[in-house]
Amino acid sequence: MNQEQTQNFPKIYKQQQPRAENKITHFLHHSEQNPKTFTSVLFNCSVNHNYFKLQINQTTIMSVSPRLKRVSSGKFAFSSDAVTRRDANYHPTVWGDYFLNHSSKFLETNENIREEHEKLGLEVRGLLVDEKMDHSNKIKLIDDLIRLGVDYHFESEIKGELKKLHDDQDHLALDLCSTSLLFRLLRAHGFHVSSDVFTKFKNTNGEFESDDARSWWCLYEATHLRTPEESILEEALKVSRKKLEALLPQLSFPLSDCVRHALHIPYYRNVPRLVARQYIPLYDAEAAKIESLARFAKIDFNMLQALHQSELKEVSRWWKDFDFATKLPYARDRISEGYYWIMGAHHEPKFSLSRKFLTKIIGITSLIDDTYDVYGNLEEVTKFTEAVERWDMEAVNDLPQYMQVIYTGLLGMYEEFKDDLINAGGRDFALYYAIEVMKEIVRSYQKEAEFFHTGYTPGFDEYMENSIISGGYKMFIILEVITRGEYSLKETLDWALTVPEMVKSSSLIARFVDDIQTYKAEEERGEDVSAVRCYMKEHGVSEEEACEKMREMIEVEWKKLNKETQETNEVTTPAVLPSLNFTRVLEVMYDEGDGYSNSQGVTKDRITALLRNPIDL
Q: Do 367 and 492 have their domain in common?
């Protein structure tokens, strides 16, 4: 802009100033569409040390000068050295120090509870292996164990009973409800079963028929394990959903709630721990419940909750010691939400190390993401990328002060993790893979920052190729494989690094679900690059059409993911549960908006149910 064009600009934009006036009342905006056109914008300004924040009251800024990047209605900071700082206005933590100070009293106030838990567990195990129980009751018992969240106590017994049911041809004579249950259980546990088993439930007109609401519910749940080109399950999905929606107002409790939950989020796509919290009171209300199992599930939930609370307390102490929330106020303070995210992927006691490390990872990664997306300028984030590539604590001296706390926390966390891997049986060779995936995600953040700061809008395929990495799911899947440590790792990790179809489908689902829910909020802070926007631009469609296409793609990728997780070998098996469970968590976290960034609503309620309130015995 020439001197004549800028003469009416406030002094702060023409010179570097250590401080600014408390109010800027008028600003001339240079239009992108017409270089000779200016738009009036009103601001309020408040001084904050060496930078000040501008609250836009009226018009959105489009472009003003090389120093002032695109922003939209919201806050941003403008430093004394002419560095533009945006602010996403993330709300503070809703938990404060609650989990840092909280200790469960459940085991202290129930002195004999462990003994009762053990006794009840033996009773349930006896029922599970009872050879006199008929197939339909055995199938329902297995399903109940899984839904109640206690199946981890009986993994080998469940696998053995399912193998018997799979090999026994008598299951072909089961009714629609039991057939649907068994179909879902077998596929979920790696047994091959053809969707042709449902053909016999069609009438002479080729239509599914049943007078039983429970059968429609079971069929609906089974259809979510369909793979590509299974037309009979596509048909069953449409019919069963329509039937359930029509029947729901007539159903009585607890079946009504089971159906309502399934229509909202199908069981196979839901987080196991949330399913357990929902299902325990529903099972307790069943007339045909097994008393010992109902009691066992309640006690087990509370015992496991006490463990989870102690882990979250430990991680919260680590977060507090670094004082991330105070030192990086522009970033999301979400360590409790991060633990909830990771706990949703694997809640069993034996994965305690995994939960604690991955919660720290999601906390640090969230800080890095917000730095690249919101606060850092291109020069600063490039320095951070270079420092991560070096992976050397000496590189901290090349970083701005606010970035040093992130870098120090990141490398220190990995050093602790190395010790944990050594203590866990000499698995420290896997540290290389853990570092590589962190470097990779930082590179992807760098590319997204370059998109923004240069004003470049990539094509849809280019955007998706990068977002498979930036979404973080490849990293989390690989890190969970490492921390679970149940199998020979190297071959699996080498395979996962190549972004095979299983990992790719999980990552694509995550990106589509995320972008559908977050693209508008991101645009409000000036970010125009998302799957939705790239697809709209490339295909010339509306927002609604682009979002609908994303939803169709989600269904396609779920079917691919089902196929990949049902056709496994020794190398791919360790990645099955990480791929499925992280995808499930994302589906739930974003089912009613961005439940991570905006955690004051349903996310808070779910954390309260899982990590704060025990179940009444």
A: yes
Its pTM stands at: 0.85
The contacts of residue 71 (CB under 8 Å, 6+ apart) are 56, 60, 61, 84, 86, 525, 526
Radius of gyration of the chain (CA): 27
Same domain, 501 and 608: yes
Distance, CA of 316 to CA of 101 (rounded, Å): 9
353 and 284, same domain (yes or no)? no
pLDDT digits (tens, 9 = 90+) for 58-113: 333 333 333 333 333 333 333 334 466 888 899 999 999 999 998 887 877 677 89
pLDDT at 349: 96
Render 231-262 in DSSP notation, one character per residue: HHHHHHHHHHHHHHHHHGGGPPTTHHHHHHHH
Q: Distance (Å, rounded) from C-alpha 588 to C-alpha 595?
A: 8
Total count of domains within the chain: 3
- Asked, for residue 96, whether it belongs to a domain, the answer is no
Alpha-carbon gap, residue 609 to 617, rounded angstroms = 15
Q: Is the pLDDT of residue 17 over 50?
A: no
3-state class (DSSP) for residue 177: helix
Is residue 356 located within the same domain as residue 505?
yes
- Mean pLDDT computed over every residue of the chain: 87
CA dist list (Å): 268 to 123, 141, 143, 222, 577: 28, 17, 12, 8, 12
Residue 540 host element (H or E): none
pLDDT, greater one: 486 or 342: 342
**pLDDT tens-digit readout, 565-593:** 999 998 999 999 999 999 999 999 999 89
Both 502 and 425 in one domain: the answer is yes
Query: Can the peptide bond before residue 254 be classed as cis, meaning omega within 30 degrees of 0?
Result: yes
Answer whether residue 99 is part of any domain: no
Q: Which domain holds residue 180?
A: 129-289
Residue 30: pLDDT over 90: no
Instruction: Say which CATH number the domain at 538 has.
Output: 1.10.600.10
